[in-house]
Amino acid sequence: MMNFAVDIRELRVVRGGQTVLHDVTAQVPTGSVTGLLGPSGCGKTTLMRSIVGVQKVAGGEVRVLGLPAGSAALRDRIGYVTQAPSVYGDLSVMENLRYFAAVLGAPREDPERVLAAVGLESKETARVDRLSGGQRARVSLAAALLGAPKVLVLDEPTVGLDPVLRAELWGLFHRLAEADDPVTLLISSHVMDEASRCTRLLLMREGRILASDTPRALLESTGAADVEGAFLALVGAAS
Known about the structure:
There is one protein chain. This protein is an alpha/beta fold. The protein is built from 7 helices and 10 strands. The protein has a 6-stranded mixed sheet, with helices on both faces. It has a 4-stranded antiparallel sheet with strand order 2-1-4-5, with helices on one face. The model has no long low-confidence stretch (mean pLDDT about 90).
């Protein structure tokens, strides 16, 4: 029986009188690198905010590691990286990491550990606002890794990065998921070619989950040559 780190049941979110998520039901298997793919504006960020526990919901249930989303006990067990850098630009890389480590009550040596994990040891004294966009994204990821979270929710972490850096980050994601004490990752993207880097996919459109399966199974079930083709086939079937 598959074990789920995130379990979403009939989740509904309404904003400004408009339904953003329509009774979404989905699961994220423990230790997976699950891609949440869909066009911009389809509700990916709202779904991720609901998982982290910072989104007001109109109905349904979200459980993370067996607890209701937003529970105090999850504070140091779930890491969240937003699309915008979530660190302070006027502080150095290491000052940011030491600050967030203190807030989380993380071990003293944690900033050095996560800095090495994202490959920014040479930038520890640099001010964040003087880094490249890709480097700032890695600082945000390092902050999310503090305290050894069991679930990482990453909202489009590779947007704007060059192909080499994207490949390096995906390598890091898989190392985290394949560790002896695995981390579960949910990674959103609107770039369909990133689907092949995931062990499982959630395809989303207009506030609904179109499919939840492995990349190979989605290709086999739709007869498509790639995930973009599978997505389009599913859209056509749902119309």
